[in-house]
Write a structure and sequence with these properties.
The structure is a homooctamer of 224-residue chains. The first copy, chain A, has 224 residues and is an alpha/beta fold. Chain A folds into two domains: 13-80; 91-223, Rossmann fold. Chain A contains ten helices and nine strands. In chain A, the strands form two sheets. In chain A, strands 6-5-7-8-9 form a five-stranded parallel sheet, sandwiched between helices. A four-stranded mixed sheet of chain A has the order 1-2-4-3, with helices on both faces. In chain A, strand 1, helix 2 (30-42) and strand 2 (48-51) form a beta-alpha-beta unit. In chain A, helix 2 runs parallel beside helix 3 and helix 4 (102-114) packs parallel to helix 9 (206-217). The interface between A and G is small, with 8 and 8 residues.
Chain lengths: 224, 224, 224, 224, 224, 224, 224, 224
């Protein structure tokens, strides 16, 4: 077998630079999450985040990690260390259709805030109550990027997409029942948005939307 | 085998009363369509309608059926005899998201008109251009029933559903590509509408929506 | 960023008028549901409804809300205040195929009753026992609107659609197993109904069907 | 490699006995179909059938195969040789919902007839016109087996299943559009039939239903 | 509203004759099941069956229903009264691919036995161990009807369908994981069987297969 | 019906500002496309684009529109007027997996170029030939945004997402067969990307990806 | 942007070694296919293969490429240059269920032969005619690897998987209709095979199966 | 009924030879698993394996089976007796994308080891961190066969398939959420791999992949 001669370049080091560490908490116990966060702190890599952490695990982690620990129950998210100072081009707007969509929206918002973005929240602005949505359209339209979070028919992404000049990151949620197919109906609707400038992430993927919003809001910063 | 003793009641006669005859033209040739329409005329059952009739068949039918014949190319619909006089409770509003949705919308509108309904059309009011939709919301809100026709993400039905007090009949269309899955994505979205008062018919089923709108607009008439 | 100049019209106020408030109880605890209902009572907005409330929550709510509180266990529905007096054009008929479909049917029936409709129930009239269905066809055919509730193959909607002149609101239920796909098979069947005048709401959406039936039965009233 | 020692029994000979040869014509040209039918005639294996043969191929075959050749255009079926004399337990009833379902129904009927069954046809008995179906329920109920052919929502199988004591072979057809999903919706509905005694074959598989009906109608004959 | 004039014929009485009563136990508690069975006994309608009854409910029912009560744990089936004497044309063969398919197979077998059929069982004859299947092919081939029960890829139905002259009732089961899609993969495979004479019932529907096998085995009896 | 009092704000004017006009050519004939482009030229709204225009229509359009007309056969795209000068934050990189993906990639590239972006193309860099992809990773990593175009398994988006710090807009294509399900498999894979910072547009939606890339690359410009 | 420092290793050169070049002919015209094959010949890289080439293109190619050109019409495959001498561990067996599956089977067989494998073909051995399959089980069982090609229910893979000790490469084909879902049903069945040692490639992917069979048959050769 | 005359050959004995016995533990209790393993030990058929055994059952089994018992918690796998000495052509490489994929990967690795293969593990080499994967490409490329285990978008299989000359057995896992559809998205992606030489087993089927890898690695041994 010939030596393929791959240089052992540290792509990983490159890949990680610029974004804080994020621990996906689903399927990990409190000890495992705590271990990773402790290492990151020891290495000076704060702020660090753990997502999908329930209240029970959060209590254990709080006792172990102490002063720098913060738990955001709505978003089921743990943060160790302070959020970075906002240094993006503008604001990240996070819009959510219904109250049941807020956990996903909060995950996106907190991830973006932690990474150094000024975040504005617009909750309960689903299209069935168009007046609430229209009352905040000026604010949405002046953001760098809008994260649009909705379950059921997911129409929020299309309506916002038609109203704002910036990119819209659409996050379908699993909110709904029956023909919502666990969020797949909202996902399909968002992919078929008649408004240009809308792209989509996985169902309930608030974390991914937060990262992406951060990256878009820092487009200029990366180029300088 | 015992005699089941079913009385030979003419449910069929009952079923047909009140609504004009409609011929589903798909898969029938001009001769077949012409035969049925001729019989209906002979029986005094005008106006009668044939749906999904292309231009070539329409030309043949015109020559055969003469003066009372009308062809609506957009809707691919043939009507023999005049539309009934409008005698419903109010107006049937037909809204369509994009120009590609117009054939389905016209089918619904013409069916409703033929059956005796005053119809108002609101085309090119897709949610990506919310201003056009909002400019006709007063008119929509005062209708007896709104038929909302849209492909792609089908958000029009939810947005209208949140703005009007009357029933909304949502018609998904096969307009779109890729993840639109031939109209199934719009269909799913409409079924998950966050607005109450929205119900859905099959993809591209303008005819069914027109009948249903007629029936809703004549609710009071049936009860008197 | 230019001012978009949206007038801050209260679409919301409009949207809500005419229909009582409904609280979607799924995923809310008794305290949350109680809070909303208490506010509505304080604002004089009774009758109000909460759907998908289990027995345990209902007990807590009963203690808190007192005399005006009613719980309908079959429908898992809470009502605060008395139903409005029936003032629609005619009767809302609610038909259910099997005993397992009754919870969804009852949700539709109670919502319609609360909103001011005279409701007639026809349960256990699935098409496998056609005699029971035929024995009530006169009553069904004289209703303003029929709500047809069925799981499994959902044939009830088509059969009723062929027998009555009024609109049929079809509600697929998740009753079934295997190839019923959680109600999607019944949903698809109903969307493909060979009878005109049938439209469909989401799986198990008794609430939506009840609202829609109410709106159809009040078509004339809105126009006056 | 050890010798597995399979006895070379002629399962094939066994398998074929009792049922005439059937050539699946789809994707075969006239020459290929003609060759097979000629061989079967030479071997004395008539009657033989070829299914899914269009008119053009049928013309060529007619010229080649001569007197014993018969073409059934509705069913797109070729038969060489006369049908066997009916010798089953009773009648095979073939019911079809709409005119578009007749080709599949005829394929089933002709296959059963050729194999030696007395066949009774009941066409245009879809559930939207329940009176026509009810007018022939006595005849259906006294058959040995009913083949129920329907597209769209496929409700015919369930309704017949509730009315007759014999097995019902349900054949979904690809008749429909949009959410009919090429016959899959009818297929799913039939699999979920609330009536016991219904089983299902593939979409448009009239041939398979005809064979199965033949086998059921000859249950006693096989046992003697 | 005109009187539709339906004769109130007792289709129901007809429908039920010839087959014992069956109670679908899923979602019913022991008290409900016991009530129905008690009524049936009082009316002299034994044997009666309840399907999908777990051990806990069975214990309660046993205490209440006494001597005539039988519980078949494998099939989760309760029978009140003795099975009828076999009076069909021949034998009902029930074949199951793996041990996990036995509960569904037993449900089919016990239903058929109770209704008056001689049943032969062939378990653990999946196609991966073809020798076991081949060793019982003579017995299968001489049955009146074969019920073929299999999960995973469901190949058993096709292989048996190629070996026997009688009808094959294929029952897909939910045995499997991942791409088995809860039994839908086996269902699809069985619907596409390359062997003629195979029809399919819903996933895990042993009860339906048992009834159908009974009806096929009594084809001659119904005609006399 | 009360006046809802919507201010007639010109949301549309706002919505369109900043992005050139784009005509979706699918389903429009040359005359229709030519009319729209002519109006846009008359209104001074160049450059303007028409997508999904085949060669035949392009020839007709060229004759009519003259000097400013350009046709890009690979992308099936017409442009009237010159591309704007690049004024974004950096480069838009467009990567395509195989040669069959180039039409979609070119649509994205040309749309972005026309809107005023410097575009770099990286074609034939599918993951099965990782060396080609790795040889251009420096260039990809220094872009403002990467558009990743791939059919079949769509792995390109994930691999690039792991290598670059900027947002990745993933475009699944309908390239493939069988289990590619018309591009849906690639779409699903991209939505499940294990790399953060990846979002997805509809199958074959090069146009949408081009617009989105433009918006991301102009994030800073909008905020100034 | 830091230099990522990837060594520019020629992974591609490595990747290609050992297997002849294969041109995927779908969507390429005769000129394009001819160009690639000519270059390969000039580089001394024969034998080379082009798949999915129809007769018309093959004729053009034959004229251009001359003596070394071979066209296999069944497999729609072009080969330039002679097949390598068989040098694998043993035989590659290719089994196909029906005559309609032969094109895919031949593609697999010819690819394997060209790459230097002794191939044995077993066609028309579908499970509905088990005798034919059993008559060749000794030969199948002594192969190095079996390629099992089948459409419809795809049971062939499971049955062979239970009979042979070597790996089975299952190739579902798009042969079938209705619920075969274009080959997806066979694909799902094969993935759920109850026999260990079966793996699956994409629908109609004879080429991929041929390559894989070659690689398995040369396992030992690679290690020496 | 004629005697079909099947020789009662012991295909089963043949089928089992060469591979140790494997007990599928899902749905069996500790007693049942223990009984089978005890019999196998008594018959001298060690090593034997039981898969999908949780910790609780493992504890009971350990007490019963004693010294030869081994439990591998990660893989949820029990082994009785020592692994065979490696005697294959080369190494079986098992690569896993993320930590959540390790249980499935370990099942594959342990099955292969037990059957007499030298196994090398490469874990946490998902494509989002391409450097880790590239650092082990030499080792992967010199294996006899690679088992590639990945959930989410399953890109690992394609990337490895493009880098190694040997067969790749792709195992999709159910790791993921939302649009991962329980592993079906990864499955579809792997089936559409643009790299030749990749075949796929069912979701989470580590066992099947281990067997297949064993068979490929022993290709030469079977032929000698």
């Amino acid at each position: 077998m010939p030596d393929l001669g791959f240089a052992k370049v540290d792509i990983g080091r490159f890949r990680r630079q610029g974004v804080p560490e994020v621990v996906y908490g689903e399927g990990k116990n409190a000890a495992q999450i705590g271990d990773i966060l402790s290492v990151l702190r020891a290495e000076g890599q704060l702020p660090a985040i753990a997502t999908r952490v329930d209240v029970a695990k959060a209590r254990i982690l709080k006792r172990r990690l102490g002063r720098e620990f913060q738990y955001f129950a709505d978003a089921r998210l743990v943060r160790l260390g302070k959020a970075r100072k906002p240094d993006g081009a503008g604001t990240v707007a996070v819009a959510a259709a219904g109250t049941s969509d807020i956990p996903v929206a909060e995950e996106a918002a907190l991830v973006a805030e932690t990474f150094g973005n000024s975040v504005e929240r617009f909750y309960d602005v689903g299209v069935a109550g168009l007046d609430r949505l229209l009352s905040c359209v000026d604010a949405l339209a002046s953001a760098s990027v809008v994260v649009a979070v909705a379950g059921m028919e997911g129409a929020l992404a299309s309506v916002i997409g038609g109203l704002v000049p910036c990119p819209v990151v659409a996050v379908p949620t699993s909110v709904g029942y029956g023909a919502s197919l666990g969020g797949v109906s909202a996902l399909l609707a968002m992919l078929n948005s008649c408004a240009a400038g809308v792209s989509v992430v996985n169902v309930d993927n608030g974390f991914g939307a937060g990262i992406l919003a951060h990256k878009i809001n820092h487009t200029g910063a990366r180029q300088r």
